[in-house]
Amino acid sequence: MRIALASSMLACGIAAQVAAQSMNDVQSVAKERGLTTADLLAAAKTYVPSGQKDEYIIFSSGGHSGQVFVIGVPSMRLLRSIAVFTPEPWQGWGYGVGNEILAEGNVNGKANLWGDTHHPAISETKGDYDGEFLFVNDKINARVAVIDLRDFETKQIVKNPLTVSDHGGAFVTPNTEYVIEGGQYATPFGADYAPISEYREKFRGSVTMWKFDRIKGRIDKSQSFAMELPPYWQDLSDAGKLVSDGYMFLNSLNSEMATGGIENKQPPFEAGVSRNATDYLHIINWKKAEAVFKAGKVDKIKGFPVIRMQTAIDEGLIYLTPEPRSPHGVDVAPKGDFMVVSGKLDPHVTVYSFDKIKKAIANRTYSGSDEYGLPILDFDAVVEAQVEVGLGPLHTQFGPDGYAYTSLFLDSAVARWTLGGEYGKGTPEPDWTLVHKTPVHYNIGHLGAAEGDTVSPDGKYLVAFNKWSVDRFFPPGPLLPQNFQLLDISHQGADMPVIYDMPIGVGEPHYAQMIKADKLHPWTVYPEIGWDPATQTLDPMAPKPKMERVERTGDGVNVYSTLVRSHFTPEHVTVKQGDHVTWRLTNIERAVDATHGFAVPQYNINLSLEPGETATIEFVADVPGTFPFYCSEFCSALHLEMMGYLMVEPK
Ligand code: K7E
Ligand code: CUA
Questions:
Q1: 483 Cα–ligand 1 center, Å
Q2: Fold (CATH) for 531-649
Q3: Boundaries of every domain in the chain
Q4: Secondary structure (DSSP) of 384-414
Q5: CB of 167 closer than 6 A to ligand 1?
Q6: What is the pLDDT of residues 585-594, one digit of tens each?
Q7: Which protein residue has the closest C-alpha to ligand 2 atom 1?
Q8: How much is the pTM?
Q9: Is the CB of 328 under 6 A from ligand 1?
């Protein structure tokens, strides 16, 4: 009774204090801290009070960290780093769980325990984010990972058998039929050896269509195929949608097929690959390619079905068209009617019309063919507009109101321009106009608007993913963080101010996608006790209460453990040196956030077991001794006591 009284008095006290505050207090704090009205407005737009949640969620590539970052918008609070290509001790990733999935990403049998993640892709239904799965590519070793957004954990890594580096992934087709992975630097298939003097004959580009099985939540390699492409460096890709559904677009640089060699007085790659005024946009009919693959018109290369270039030409699967040189982004507009390409060295964005592309294909309006016989659609026949936006245009996203947004690397700015004017602007004439530029700090790469690459962009917020931060933050040594800058794009035709800076000090993210938070339905505890996240099913072998035991079988020992606040059962586990130990553990909690760890010294083991989760680890007890294992999550006040002894008797 007394306690209740005291706490209600305390609550009254806080309420009274709040009531006494006024805008005068805000002004005096602002004055004291030197904040302008714009600063206060930015704070009011981004501050999310304790206990309230963000309206949008960003899935950002983690760059060199090989992970994916989950960030709330507008608060720009980091919620989680999802372990993907790189071991991550907190989640136990590579230290007891996820080891087999990490091993799927081995390259020719060799572990490559980092990733260069560039492009995350949320799964789509009818061209709109559905919030079920996330895919991300690894540029350095041409791998694609599948993350299940029920538990935000990586479920699969596929290694591309043909290409050694990828950049045109991960992008999904409108119903996530396929995950697109375009290669980047050309090599002989499988990264086999060939002298670089044989570049034109032996080196190849490729695009791989990974079939996604939504029921299984996995890529189905047996239903996947690739297409052979010329040894241009294919760059980004995007799938057509609505009117252009069934097509995909890939741009490329190095149509020169330069091979570098600065040390032999050859032009360095940088100059060699930028000699031509144009490169090639690749226009691919993937639905038709799928039919060709299913009809068996493929060669098996490195054990993988590949549609050869000649087949693609004969079957009318692929067309090229010139695009401004060194492009960095092909982005399909929300209605699927326009493809926007930026050549880094041209101050315009070039807008292609899908309607015109279709007509040019039907009428064979070619300006020639490339060295490999791929038909080149006449540029003038397929271009709708060129819009001057500024220096170093890279990537484009879209708003709900007929605006497009393009990142300008050299200008360090975000440009807003009108997408033809037919999106409700009411102008009778096509309207392709730059309307506004907001400076950002500094050197923006990608940008991400809320659902800005879907059939129904939300507008409202846009994040500039800036490569440099220079003077924006305290310098933590000479390696400076990147800077995610949040822009308010909610006011049409008006200013779009920067309202928040978020330093990213864990690698260089490239792209990110922003989804409405209410489209995500993550579990907060696993559905049932004994759930195995690796299979997303109940594990029949999962230890249950009263079935805990240590049992010896031949040369091995099986341990069945449960974890609950604040003890392990059993607490003594004795094995013999050389025993093969199979240790199954289940967290039998049902309370939200009641996660337990399982950390074993000497054996490089740490698990994170979320409520309901089961995991199995195997190791050889090759080092004798006494090893206190403990729960590495601070799960309760008696958490220090949540431990046990692994005793390994010497031989
Ligand atoms: Cu850095 Cu999409 Cu790999 Cu542009 S990419 S920035
Ligand atoms: Cu369980 Cu700490």
A1: 15
A2: Immunoglobulin-like (2.60.40)
A3: 531-649
A4: EEEEE--SSEEEEEE-TTSEEEEEETTTTEE
A5: yes
A6: 999 999 999 9
A7: 596
A8: 0.95
A9: yes
